[in-house]
Amino acid sequence: MARYGMVIDIARCSGCYNCFLACKDEHCGQDYPGYAAAQPMTGQFWMNIIEKERGQYPKVKLADIPVPCMHCEDAPCVKSAKGGAVYSRPDGIVIIDPAKAEGQKQIVSSCPYGVIYWNGEKNLPQKCTLCAHLLDAGWKEPRCVEMCPTGALAFGDLDDPASEVSRLIASGAAESLHPEYGLKEKVVYIGLPKKFVAGMVVLGDTDECAEGATVTLTGSGRNMTVTTDTFGDFEFEGLADDTDYIVIIKAKGYKPKEIPVKTTSDVYLGVIKL
Ligand code: SF4
Ligand code: SF4
Fold this sequence. Notes:
single chain
């Protein structure tokens, strides 16, 4: 028996909303008895795209984070439901039984990810089913995965070491969206936005962009060095939250400059004159 999971690569997601539309196309206006009642056209986002903006002008970055149900192994939604109305299948898919869950509004607030929606018309909590009705019919992947044009969504058997999802997880780059929840999520991410430190180096006497200056960032056991580009720009990505670092800038013929930074947010140091 497979144990299904998904790995979402944020760097590959272009924010095209194809996954969102594929989910709507599959689930709106169609009941799948035993799996889910029809998803309403509006108000529910079983595949929700969160747009995350980081940095300050002129250094602003945008990431799109697709968020379906995480099909957690330690799922609080399962625990909150009465009469087995939410259950984890042997293949790991978490299903809200559309008959048993009627009237159980408490299920909605049990999910810390906020991916369960209340259908007021049907008096029913609803969410992503990982397209279990399709998988049971022999499909190899859910509709959202099939429709992603950039390959940002990988789906497969977490217990098969040869599957793409297992390979991506084995690379060590995958992490859950909220590890602090401790839910053993089976949907995990690669390339989630972290903190960055960036700036632009200028030669103080000429006001020219300092191309080729050496910029080193140290702190938290890390030591990274980059070289400024034609515009004097530099950047360090993937940094930890709330951490103290020191940026050291060196250019031949100029006095080195040290700047302490703390990544409580993304840091754009602006124009730095040597
Ligand atoms: S993400 Fe939320 S709804 Fe999905 S299994 Fe986990 S707790 Fe339940
Ligand atoms: S797996 Fe199916 S139900 Fe879940 S978000 Fe994708 S298309 Fe929607």
